[in-house]
Amino acid sequence: MWSYWGTGTSTSVAFGPVNPSITNAHYAEIGGTNMSDTQVQRWERLFAGDFVFGRSQRLTRGADITEDWDINWSTPDVYETSLSSRWISIEINGISSDYVFKNTLNVGPHPNEPFLGNKNIIALIDDCALFWDVDYTFSLYNLGGALIGDYTWNTLNGGSLDGMQLSPELLRQYFIGGEELRLAFLTSDDVIEVYNLLTGQYEYYGDYSGITTGPLAGAVTIADIVDGRVDGWTYIGIDNVILGPMFASFNAEPVPEPGTWAFMLGGAAFLGRWGRPLRNALKKARSAVS
């Protein structure tokens, strides 16, 4: 049983509990042999390996392994022996789905590279994988291996990172993922700045310093969790609905019962220096790329 928190425009709201699970069949595919293992043990095994897309990379400050509210992973046995590979999306609402996609990219700056264990995947965005390219730019592939976009800009425009060129150092210092064709950079302990993936243009920021519930209660900051300084909590990516950070936890408080998972979704609670509400910021941002 899991629980998670979602943040509105002014307060944090608790949701759940819900019951996503790893089935016996899926557990066996990732090397599980004891079917009496708990769901917590099963998720621990999944996260400990390189089965999850985007988890094998060490290029960014925070690993964005979630697409919407899904955690996507591939089955190694099928991957190694077939022209196509199955991946499973295990959602917070407990639904598991199987899909088939090509196990290698077919065009663009990463030809013949695999999805599984690919260290160039730096985020899962819009049912696609965001890749870091050798020329210090970004490209986007769908899970069928097709190139969606090969972006040539390499300098951020606006915000506190204005004029900074894309580089491995920039990714390791600031980048924590993206969604909805946007990139998220953690520029201070509790501030995430959002840039347009298509252009590199700054759009808005979210200040999370006012959140006082869930894992951000007390003096805990976004940076504390992203950088692994909070026992029990793990940063897992940017959510698509509210473009906020998402966290997973074992045995965190408050949870429905001991030994469960908990999720926290932190929305962009206080967007913009002029107090723009979330919905207006998102509407403007979407219009910029429509």
Helical proportion? 10-25%
- So how many helices? 6
Mean pLDDT: 74
What strand order characterises the main sheet? 2-1-17-16-15
The ordered H/E elements are: EEHHEEHEEEEEEHEEEEHEEEH
> Could you name the ranges where pLDDT drops below 50 across 5 or more consecutive residues?
1-17, 251-290
Write down the overall geometry.
globular
Structural category: alpha+beta
Q: Distance between termini? A: 39 Å
Sheet with the most strands, sense and barrel status: 5 strands, mixed
Instruction: From the alpha carbons, calculate the radius of gyration and give it in angstroms.
Output: 18 Å
Proportion of strand residues: 25-35%
State the oligomer.
Answer: single chain
**Beta strands, count:** 17
